[in-house]
Amino acid sequence: MTLPYHASGVRSVIGVDAGTATLREADHLIHRLLDQLSLADGVFACTHLFRTDERRGTTLSLAVPGPDADAVWQELVHVLPEGTGLALADRSHGPGDAVGTARLAAAAPPASGRAVAYPGVAHLTGTVTVADLLGRSAIEHLVVLGAPGVQLPPTAEVLTQDHVRPEWRDGVLTLTLVPAAGGLLAPFEVPNPTPCCADHN
Predict the structure, then answer these.
(1) Do 60 and 16 form a contact (C-beta atoms < 8 A)?
(2) How far apart are the C-alpha atoms of 147 and 65, rounded to whole Å?
(3) Position 201 confidence tier, pLDDT thresholds 50, 70, 90
(4) What pLDDT, on a 0 to 100 scale, did the predictor assign at position 9?
(5) Could you tell me which of 125, 93, 120 has the C-alpha nearest to residue 191?
(6) Which residues touch 46 (CB under 8 Å, ≥6 apart)?
(7) C-alpha span between 84 and 99 (Å, rounded)
(8) Which residues have C-beta within 8 Å of that of residue 151, sequence separation ≥ 6?
(9) Which residues does 135 contact at the CB level (< 8 Å), separation at least 6?
(10) What residues pair up with 9 in beta bridges, in sequence order?
(11) Residue 32 contacts by C-beta under 8 Å, 6 or more apart in sequence?
(12) What is the CA angle 124-136-68, rounded to 5?
């Protein structure tokens, strides 16, 4: 699947079902892949919950620049465990059931998906402003839980806790915020109960 993404050009989306059951496991796998693979800056890596008659779990999608897709595919085949399902356009690797759920993951963004890695995420640490969130990352829209129509001033501050997980919503990368102590805002998803690990929060 090839899609244009905001500020990122044309990308190919690889779906991955490596048997991860929880968001925490999926986040950890994403960070391990980011460390191991030859990925260009600006990759989108998302998690996707699924449920079938046989099992439930969390798949991944990796949206990479089109020219890099073949190389990333080959690396994934070698670094992921046996039994992993991979899907990219009409290409597949692994057992049929895992390939099927991987295809669903590849088809999900940008309509849906929880983004763990995305352009600019490295800037979103500590306390940042609304202007930083929208100007220095691929996040396009902010929503305050319970007050969807509120327009946030650019100077409003967001306590990130170094854990910012926006979601694709109908093609728009959207971050849900909640009020926090001291008049700050914070992402709705907190590091617990879905932390990755001490090195990657």
Answers:
(1) yes
(2) 36
(3) very low
(4) 57
(5) 125
(6) 60, 61, 63, 105, 108, 109, 113, 114, 115, 116, 168
(7) 8
(8) none
(9) none
(10) 5
(11) none
(12) 95
Res 6 pLDDT > 50: no
Q: Residue 199 has which token pair?
A: 């090195």
> Can you read off the two tokens belonging to residue 160?
């990130």
Higher pLDDT, 191 or 154: 154
User: Model confidence at 51, in pLDDT bands (50, 70, 90)?
Assistant: very high
Given a cut of 60, whether residue 27 has pLDDT beyond it is: yes
Sign of CA dihedral 80, 24, 62, 56: positive
Give CA–CA dist 63/40, Å, rounded.
11
Helix (H) or strand (E) holding 173: strand 172-179
